[in-house]
Specification:
By secondary structure, the chain is of the alpha+beta class. It contains 4 helices and 10 strands; from the N terminus they run E-E-E-E-H-E-H-E-H-E-E-E-H-E.
């Protein structure tokens, strides 16, 4: 499995709009999260070993922080023609198996991944109440086989800071995982 780091989009970037179908076919947009004090956007997929490694921790973190008012959404931008395990039908199964309590959206055109400068799965972006990027990077230092705690420490620190009105630490570590599976000819220039 090839290790791809996140691009570390510039802090202060405004959240890009989206309107994508969830696992039940309902269209979900950025505007639906407008009242939340913080928004976590996670680019994930079903088949990546890095996502599989962190999915239980992500599900637990999401359940906990949704109770605190955080909005959380996951987006799958992979090319399902070449990676059928990431199809919308399989996404619905994955959401149930993983216990995700947040919308899991399908970005068929890959335009949303490009707008966020997402490069890998998982890739995390945390926005404040004004939807300004305050954190981008790893969930925690855990990776398959490294025996570090899979506790969401980095994401928790960012979410806690925003929820308590404190600034998020500027030193942030890139996420790393499988590359987003771009459709042939649709690869972004930033990867």
């Amino acid at each position: 499995m090839a290790l791809t780091p996140s691009t570390m989009a510039p802090l202060g970037t405004k959240a890009a709009d989206f309107r994508l179908p969830d696992t039940d076919g309902k269209l979900v947009s950025l505007a639906e999260f407008a009242s939340a004090p913080v928004l976590l956007v996670a680019f994930i997929c079903n088949h990546c070993p890095f996502v599989k490694h962190s999915r239980a921790a992500l599900a637990a973190l999401a359940s906990e922080y949704q109770l605190k008012g955080a909005a959380i959404v996951a987006i799958n931008s992979n090319d399902v023609t070449h990676y059928p395990d990431d199809s919308p039908e399989r996404m619905k199964e994955e959401k149930a198996i993983a216990g995700y309590t947040f919308p899991y959206l399908y970005d068929e055109t890959q335009a949303v991944a490009k707008a966020y400068r997402a490069a890998c799965t998982p890739d995390f972006f945390v926005f404040d109440k004004d939807r300004i990027l305050a954190y981008r990077g790893q969930m925690d230092a855990s990776r398959p086989g490294n025996d570090k705690p899979n506790d969401g420490a980095d994401l928790r620190a960012a979410l806690d800071a925003i929820l308590s009105g404190r600034p998020v630490a500027k030193q942030q570590v890139p996420s790393a995982g499988c590359n987003i599976k771009w459709r042939l000819g649709n690869e972004p220039t930033y990867t």
